[in-house]
Every structure is written in C-alpha cells, then in structure tokens.
Specification:
With 469 residues, the chain is an alpha/beta fold. It contains 18 helices and 15 strands. It folds into three domains: 171 residues, Lambda Exonuclease, Chain A; 30 residues, no CATH class; 217 residues, Nucleotidyltransferase, domain 5 (2-Layer Sandwich). Helix content is 41%, strand content 16%.
Length: 469
C-alpha cells in the first residue's frame, strides 16, 4: 500500500511534480541540506521543547504519537495530543512561526483526517506559535514565549475537500512517469523548492519569470509557447519593469545619468560604507531581545576620506556567546566619524538596527541616531531605474548587482554557496569547532562581510564612471 505522510501532502499542495520527484527521483535532490533549512529544523525542535512544558504531567498529553489510517494509506505524527477521554482528543501542532499560515492549516487538517479514520474524535485543534511580543529576561518562560491559537473552525471548513486532495496525492504517487506541471508561482511558495535546477533547466535567461508578471499573464504566454522575456508583448510589461524590459530588448544597460548625478551630489565626504551581519532566532539568545529580533554581531566599514583616495577598511566580528551589541557599538563609534555620508545597500535594514541599538544602549543613542540622519541608500539608483542592466534580471540586491557591474568580484567561496554569516555565527561561537576549522570560518565570515562594503565602493565607482569621473 502507498503511504502518504503529512509532509508529502504539503508538497502536493505546492506542486504535484515536486511530490512525485521527491518520492521517485531522490537522486535529483541536493546532497547537502541547506544550512538555512537545517536552522529551521533546529528552531522547530527548540520551540517544541518549550511547548511540551505547557502540558504538565498527568493531564493526558502525549508527545509525538504516530497514527496510520486503516482506511487509506495516510500516516501522521502529531506534535502534542491531549486525551480528554479514551476516544476524544485535542490536537496541538507546534510551529516556530509568529502567525497562522495557510499551510499550517493544511497540516492539521491532514492530521485530523488521519486521527478520525483511526477512531478518535478530535474536539479541538490548536496551533502553538511564537509570541513575538515576548522579551526575554532570565530563563525562557514558555507561557510567555508561546501563544495558542484555536483553529478548530478553520480546520472544519477545509475537511470536506480533503479526501479528494488525498486521493489526488495518491494518484500522483502511482504515476510511472513524472507529471507535466506548468511553472507558475509555485516554485517558491510556501517554500523554495530544492528541485528548481532540474525543473528550470530549459528556462532561458532572462525569462518571462523575471518580468514580474502575474499568473494570468504567465498562462497566456505559456499557452503561446513563450518563455524568453524578449518575446513578451510590450503591453504586458508593468511600469516598474519597463526599463528592465527595454534593457533586455536592446541588450544594453539603461542609464539615467542625470538621476545618478543628482544622487551622487548628495554625498558628503568622508564616505562611510557600512554593512551589518545579524542573527535572529525563535528563542531569544540574550536578555532584552524578542523572538526573531535582529541582533548585529558583525560589521564591515570602508572609509574614503577624500575623493580619489583609497578606502580604509575596519571590521568587527563577535567571537563569544554573549550579547554582541555592546562591543560592536563601542568599536564602531570610534571608527565612524561625526561627519560624512554613511552609505548602505537597502539602508532601511541598517537604520532599523541602529535605532534598536540606540534604544538598547542609551550611552550610544546619540551616536546611532546621528548616524541614521546621515545615511544614504546606494541601492536607490538601481531600485528607481537610474541604472538598469539586463543581467540584473530585474533584481536589485547587491548579490545580483555586484557581479554584473564588477565581474571581477565574486562571493563564491565566501562562507558557502548555501549559507551566509547568519547561519554560521552560532556555530562559530559554540566552542565546539576545532581551532583550525574555527579560524577558517572566522576568515570566511570576515571576507564575506568585507565584500559587501568593498562591493559598494566599487559600485559607486562604476556609477561615477558613467558621468565621466
């Protein structure tokens, strides 16, 4: 008999092809688990550990029970099942999210069906979520860290359609060959699919998927066999993608020199190019932090004192398992002077961190508030269309822009292809790594952050070249 798990069911809801390939072509899956995905799993286990503390011994709670339906091939493992009588239960599913999401409901709907077919009556269905208003002070307090959302009514509304979807999933698993599925928006919702390299192998670059089109327009183009962005009718392109579209058609950058010049005129020397690396987790690591609050643990700072001068570089990386903000603030305040523009890429992120550190450390509030008043966003000319290149593929992240504007620079080999400093920092400060491995990781993390700020220096230089500087 075919076996369908709740994880399989969620894959079906995302994409029929994803489910089939995952079950029948596991050779196509990446060999290494992405560290960011591994972190999600670890956080889930941590949250679940505290969720179990909400149920005292003797109140009928059972943890991680597994049920297999005798009627059809579905199986589920529940996080927490509370028996109110021998045949009546309350179902509690633990999620490390801060709010109810659609796939959470699909998850518990599947579980309720499996439990019902196993002879139990599910009286109540709840999600245990993370309360992002909680602030840690001392040991974690499970009753404050977590919140319980009753989703019994929402689950009941979905039960009627479930048997048909389960049968659909079982039919997919019985197929001898992979199903033909049209690529629309499902490859990244609700999760990034690990099989994109396989499914997208015949998709050109740039493609219709880079044009920011809705599913209706994508379907119209696919019905006509159109995949290349150059073949998209001009009338389908939204105003926000117009310049990108024109750059693709001409295979040339679209450069608004007046807009770039106006942006550069705002800069005041010395120039400070600033980038933070931050860490966040469902369970706050230090006192005074909320779940998922960003905690800066590293920065890179390039400084150009006068036009034409070579940049100076400063950096910081916290190496101990402590609140990293006090040491970072003390060092940065000595290296970032009181005058001059502070340049960041997508500066809203850095400004928010500065505001949070100002609130957390009153002694440095004046410093961080003053820095925020001097900040300018180097991503602005790209976001607003002053500098558009076809090879940006309609994106404006520094990872998309830098290799195109400065092809000799690359992030390859810095940390890893599948993880950033965000994922590696807990490992670095854990004290579990051999000294040699720890030293190598430290160097890579410093080089990774340094590339962000040096990349900004170079991107500004390339923009200045368009003006003949």
């Amino acid at each position: 008999m075919l076996i369908l798990t709740k994880s399989d069911f969620i894959k079906l809801l995302q994409c029929r092809k994803y489910l089939w390939l995952y079950k029948h072509r596991r050779d196509l899956l990446p060999e290494d688990i992405d560290l960011s995905l591994e972190k999600v799993f670890e956080e889930g286990y941590e949250v679940e550990k505290y969720a179990c503390e909400l149920f005292p011994k003797g109140d009928g709670a059972v943890f991680q029970p597994t049920f297999k339906s005798p009627k059809q091939g579905i199986i589920c493992r529940c996080d927490i099942l509370k028996y109110t009588s021998p045949k009546e239960v309350e179902l509690y599913e633990v999620k490390s999210s801060t709010e109810v999401k659609d796939y959470h409901l699909s998850d518990v709907v599947f579980q309720k069906q499996c439990l019902t077919e196993s002879g139990l009556t599910v009286k109540k269905v709840c999600l245990i979520l993370v309360n992002n208003k909680y602030v840690r002070h001392g040991p974690i307090e499970p009753k404050k860290l977590l919140k319980i959302e009753d989703v019994t009514e929402e689950v009941e509304e979905r039960m009627e359609e479930l048997p048909a979807r389960i049968e659909e999933a079982l039919k997919v698993l019985r197929l001898k060959t992979e199903p033909d599925v049209r690529i629309l928006k499902q490859c990244s919702k609700p999760f990034a699919c690990p099989l994109i390299p396989y499914c997208w192998k015949n998709v050109p670059t740039p493609s219709i998927y880079d044009a920011g089109l809705n599913e209706k327009k994508l379907n119209i183009l696919l019905d006509k066999g159109i995949l290349n962005m150059k073949d998209v009718p001009a009338g389908m392109i939204t105003p926000s993608k117009r310049k990108f579209y024109e750059s693709v058609l001409t295979d040339k950058p679209q450069i608004d020199r007046k807009a770039i010049a106006k942006w550069i005129e705002k800069l005041v020397y010395p120039l400070y190019f600033l980038d933070y690396e931050t860490y966040s987790s469902a369970i706050p690591m230090c006192d005074g932090y909320r779940p998922y609050q960003q905690m800066p643990f590293q920065y890179s700072l390039h400084v150009i004192k006068k036009p034409g001068q070579k940049p100076l570089h400063y950096e910081h990386l916290e190496l101990k398992a402590v609140d990293p903000v006090p040491a970072l603030a003390a060092k940065l305040s000595k290296q970032l002077g009181p005058k001059g523009s502070v340049i960041a890429w997508n500066m809203g992120f850095e400004k928010d961190r500065n505001s949070e550190m100002a609130e957390r450390l009153p002694a440095y509030a004046k410093f961080f508030n003053a820095v925020n008043k001097r900040m300018v966003d180097l991503a602005e000319p790209v976001k607003k269309g002053a500098y558009v290149h076809p090879d940006f593929l309609g994106k404006w992240s520094i990872k998309a822009v830098l290799p195109v504007m400065c092809p000799e620079l690359s992030y390859e080999g810095l940390v890893t292809e599948t993880a950033t400093a965000f994922e590696y920092w807990p490992e670095l400060i854990s004290g579990k790594l051999p000294p040699a491995e720890r030293g190598t990781m430290e160097k890579k993390m410093l080089a990774y952050c340094k590339m962000d700020t040096f990349g900004m220096v170079r991107i500004l230089g390339e923009m200045e070249k368009t003006l003949g500087h």
